[in-house]
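RECORD TYPE: protein structure
NAME: Chaperone protein HtpG
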Amino acid sequence: MQEEKGTISIHTENIFPVIKKFLYSDNEIFLRELVSNAVDASQKIKRLSALGQYNGQVGDLTVDVKLDETAKTITISDNGIGMTAEEIKKYINQIAFSGATEFMEKFKEANDANEIIGRFGLGFYSAFMVADRVEIDSLSYQEGAEPAHWTCDGSTSYEISTGTRSTRGTDVILHINEESQEFLNKQRLQQILDKYCKFLPVPIRFGTKSKTEEDGQDADGKPHYKKVEVDNIINNTQPAWTKSPADLTDQDYLEFYHELYPHSMDEPLFWIHLNVDYPFNLTGILYFPKIKNEMEIQRNKIQLYSRQVFITDEVKDIVPEFLMLLQGVIDSPDIPLNVSRSFLQADSNVKKINNYITKKVADKLNEIFKSDRKGFEEKWKDINLFIKYGMLSDEKFAEKANDFCLLQNVDNAYFTFKEYYEKVKDIQVDKDGNIIYLYTQDKAQQDSFIAAAKAKGYDVLDFEGPLDTHFAGYVEQKGGEKIQMKRVDSDVIDKLIAKDEQIELALSEEETKKATDIFEKAISRADMKVEVDALPENDLPVSITMDEFMRRMKDMAKTGGGMGFYGTLPDNYKVTVNGNHPLVKRILTSDEAEASQLAKQAFDLALLSRGLLTGPELTAFVKRSVELI
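PREDICTED:
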């Protein structure tokens, strides 16, 4: 072949500075791009052979990544389809986009390397992010083809001549520039290959690694081991998501989970195998992990692949937001390898994928609920966060989840929305016909209020989860007709579920005013409003409550529920004095000092039952209690 020199057809000499400048922050993707190209070339020769268009031996298609620290080169070699000199000129020398000026203008402020590469077909040229010279040595599969050698120093000039490759395939040799010496490090390259190429469909070899294997027995009959060097194959070419669910056991799914998340100590609760080919192509496996606390929610993310090439673990626009709590893999060839955020937001297939995943998850949860209610209840502690988040944020998911979402009471019994409505609708109904759902957000701190409710024959729901303040509002709207959610400590129980029967106050108007004055002076706190009320005499002498509406708004403000104004308001409580309690009658007949001390003691007992008595106040309360003995 006669040596030839020429100019790359890009209509500007500024393209390489643009690539280096705008893609530099994502420069590690050069290896993903070049290895993916090598895999594509390998799969093409396999396909041509299957179609009868190539009659030679396909042979070993392993792709090699080689590092030469001395020569400062990285070489990606494949035994794929190869290229002729003419094909190199066609596919390498002509960058496929129109108007380099438009390119320069559009992306002068760009920082999304994937968008630039994907839109303008610059995958191969990502090599120039890290190399100041790139060579291609290639031999086409075509009978009688001559090997071709191409080289370019990062300018628009190239040279092409006869190559030295004697077997079918392509070598891409990168001469790493001074700014990118970090890539002349074996551990760094291994890290990139593990990240992007872990599940590519063709074996990827990166040198060798040491392996310990048994080598007979010693004189005592004990096994003897030796270290041997073996090929360092970095990828699993047939990950679980590429197989049919019928060919996989539960153990296969669990082993793949730990392959994805090798540092996870827990087993997933269950999983969903995605497999659809119309109206889009999508495969994958989503796992429901155990979440021990809120800090772990984003620990492990869903990984997005395109034809087994890792793209990103930022899948916000593909997976519904509430399912970002899941783990696993999604693979879709309909999502390009060089995907950009703007593409995801605009692409119609992405929206369809989003809806499909939502439906699959809802169907799977419903299936588990119907086939194994007991097992579903046992998992509720771990999965209720997913479900409640989904119901609050996704209307279509909520429609399906209403059938399997559970309400748990303080006695650890579980009910569907319909079941719970039937349980309490005839008992927990107030004089206006409202069905009152009582709930607690802290069983230990609100125990006295729970006990008071149970003494009336009422049921109390356990709403201690991080989303339950918001979820209370959802239950009011969707749980049944005329439902009102009230936290069990938001008023005395007879006010929470007010009945027609009236309890008479044993105090006169004058005694009521006197009792109010005594307690206001003894308490002396601006955030506590005293109110004497007619309650059963065996109820507590003093109760401290916070209005349900105000308390719920403040709780929502704390969890980012858009109620910021309420979050700035101080806490205000109602102190309900039981005018029918014997202690109140005793206070009214005591001298001023004793009355004040008894009132203060009763108030502090109420504070203590709410967990509001701490520090010096608690110490003083204990001291007074000892003195009263």
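COMMENT: The first helix runs from residue 15 to 23.
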